[in-house]
Amino acid sequence: MGSVRARAAAGATVVVALALIAAGTAVLLVLRGNLQDQAGLQAEVAAREVAAQIATGTAYPKLELPDGEDHPVVVTDEDGRVLAAGEDVRAVDGRPVKGAAAGGGGAGFGRPGDEDDDDGDDDRGGLRPGEVDKDVHHRDGTADVDGTVAAYRFAVVEAEDGRGEKAVVRAGAALAPERAAVGSVRTAMLIGLPLLLVVVAGVTWLVTRRALRPVEGIRSEMAAITASTDLSRRVPVPSSRDEIGRLARTTNETLAALETSVERQRRFVADASHELRSPIASLRTQLEVGVAHPELLDVPGAVADTVRLQRLAADLLLLARLDAGERPAAARVDLAALVREELPQRAGDRIPVGTGELAGVEVAGSRGQLGRVLGNLLDNAQRHAAGQVRVSVLRAGEWAVLRVEDDGPGVPAADRERIFERFVRLDDARARDDGGAGLGLAIARDVAVRHGGTLAVRDRAVFELRLPAAG
Question: Could you read off the pLDDT of 329-380 as tens digits, one per residue?
Fold first, then answer.
């Protein structure tokens, strides 16, 4: 079954069928038991009426016995000899009783007590003349009434007549009505069960089809998106606020994230191609001029273009590793020590770098990547500073904070998030830039995020890196 609807309909049908079979069996058993108990009660009433007559001294030939067809009655003595029998009663359990009312002669019956006792007690022997035993014994058997053999529920009651002789009264109640009722109910169940299962299967099929219709819409739209590669399309969202509605919304969110990622990748490739084209073209031009006219070769310019190309390639490789999900190392890094190692390398820079508070606070991460963040922040600050750059390290609760600030014009509030996008350079920065590709701040933020921290512009010219303090 490849269809969810078919599996759901089949499963529901099987479950309902099992439940109905179990319930129907229980109903039939309870109904049969109740009707059998009712027949036993009728037989007991008939037996006690006859036993009461015997106890009051009525002679056996003069006993008023019930109609033989409804309640066949046989009265025997302790030895099983027939003393009286109902009209038209010819045999009970295959034992003939004809001629019993005339004084015996019928085939012998079993001794009293061979039947099932309702309470399990055997109180025979305690009767006195004129008493009827309070216990009753029940059993199922057959009786031949006027040539018709049928099943009966028999009740057996003992009584003692005025002469002190015991008599055993066997009275039956027909089980045909009970069996007819049980058979009718069983037939109705056998007819109704398949019809009900067909209804259950049909309703389940229709309900499942209606419930899964939005899923089919989502599937078809996803197939269309895959075929067209148009990630701007979205799947239809049903109005219901159920699991299918949440699935549609999650699918649209995934498509939006995928569209953003693909667009970002496309823009990244385009910008990277543009940024790589400039230094490569400049370097090639200088080398071609040098081949034709060695005296005109600008060696410092060629070296500068090569360095710029090397840095750009390194930035692109780092971004590629970050996008691939490279996890930073778990080493302990002292931010203050990192600053002290970086500053001597900038001793000859145009803008000197001063220090503020350098608190000894450690973070967990990659020393090389965090050093790259510090270097990029200092490069950005020196590029825009008027005459001073200052770096400081401090601890704020559970955070280690590294701040780099300069005395330049700062970043306008509207651009404080845009500058962290890749290949983004503000107009004045582009005019003053000495060759940066607009990747430094983007790399710095990506590294900060990978280390569980943040990087933001807190003031016009203050960049603040926050990382979870180790330990």
Answer: 778 999 999 999 999 888 888 888 999 999 989 999 999 899 999 999 998 9
- The three-state secondary structure class of 83 is strand
CB 366 within 8 A of CB 331: yes
Q: In this structure, what DSSP letter does residue 71 have?
A: S
CA 312 – CA 23 distance, rounded (Å):
78
Q: Which two tokens stand for residue 197?
A: 């299962």
234-254 pLDDT tens trace: 888 888 778 888 888 888 898
Q: Is 305 exposed, middle or buried (0-12, 13-18, 19+ CB in 10 A)?
A: buried
Determine the distance from the C-alpha atom of residue 15 to the mean position of all C-alpha atoms in its chain, rounded to a whole number. Answer: 19
CB-side exposure of 95: number of CA atoms within 13 Å?
Answer: 16
Q: Are 16 and 144 in contact (CB under 8 A)?
A: no
What average pLDDT does the chain have?
84
Q: Residues 310, 312, 315, CA angle at the centre, nearest 5°?
A: 110
What is the Cα–Cα distance from 202 to 198, expressed in whole angstroms?
6
As a whole number of angstroms, the distance between CA 82 and CA 70 comes to 20
Q: What is the DSSP secondary structure assignment for residue 469, as one 8-state letter?
A: B
Is pTM, for the whole model, over 0.90?
no
At 73 the pLDDT is 93
Q: Backbone phi, then psi, for 252, in 5-degree steps?
A: -65, -40
Domains of the chain: 1-228 (no CATH), 243-323 (1.10.287.130), 331-468 (3.30.565.10)
Per the CB < 8 A criterion, the answer to whether 7 and 1 are in contact is: yes
Helical (H) or strand (E) element with 267: helix 243-292
